[in-house]
């Protein structure tokens, strides 16, 4: 049985509340793109194939770790979506420290209306779809 999902508003409040502690205590690696705990990193699995110059979007980018990892894998333009303003603050700080350029968008991953058709080559989403409302019909 799956856990009930909260609304975007509930998730935003929750992630804004725990963002600082999550990043300090749990965080997520940024040296490699990882698909989950105890799973080989993308540089070994090569699920995404060649990323050189590709336009990449990260849904639920959190603290920006996956954006940095994609940049290190050679991705071209980067866009990160997250509904938590506090997580995006962490992403901005990490991107600045790592000298990675990426556009950050404060939005639910269920609303990608800001992306033009055919404007993206690769979409990465690690652990975010479980936070999208179950009744959404526009989930990627």
Output mean pLDDT.
Answer: 87
What is the CA–CA distance across the termini? Answer: 22 Å
How many H/I helical runs?
4
Main β sheet profile: 4 strands, parallel
Helix percentage range: 25-40%
- Structural class, judged by helices and strands? alpha/beta
Radius of gyration: 14 Å
Write a short abstract of this structure.
By secondary structure, the protein is an alpha/beta fold. The chain has helices at 8-26, 42-45, 65-72, 85-98, and strands at residues 56-59, 78-82, 103-106, 122-124. The protein starts with 7 loop residues before the first helix and ends in a 16-residue tail after the last strand.
Task: Outline the structure in words.
This protein has helices at residues 8-26, 42-45, 65-72, 85-98; strands at 56-59, 78-82, 103-106, 122-124. Helices cover 32% and strands 11% of the residues. It is an alpha/beta fold and 140 residues long. The chain is globular, with a radius of gyration of 14 Å.
Task: Spell out the key features of this protein.
single chain, 140 residues, alpha/beta, four-stranded parallel β-sheet, 4 helices, 4 strands, 11% strand, globular
């Amino acid at each position: 049985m799956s856990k009930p999902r909260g609304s975007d508003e509930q998730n935003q409040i929750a992630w804004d509340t725990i963002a600082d502690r999550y990043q300090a205590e749990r965080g997520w690696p940024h040296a490699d793109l990882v698909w989950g705990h105890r799973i080989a990193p993308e540089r070994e699995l090569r699920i995404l194939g060649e990323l050189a110059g590709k336009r990449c979007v990260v849904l639920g980018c959190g603290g920006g770790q996956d954006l940095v990892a994609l940049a290190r894998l050679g991705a071209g333009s980067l866009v990160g979506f997250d509904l938590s303003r506090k997580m995006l603050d962490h992403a901005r700080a990490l991107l600045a420290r790592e000298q990675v350029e990426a556009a950050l968008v404060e939005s639910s991953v269920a609303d990608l209306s800001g992306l033009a058709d055919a404007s993206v080559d690769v979409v990465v989403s690690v652990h975010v779809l479980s936070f999208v409302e179950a009744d959404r019909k526009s989930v990627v």
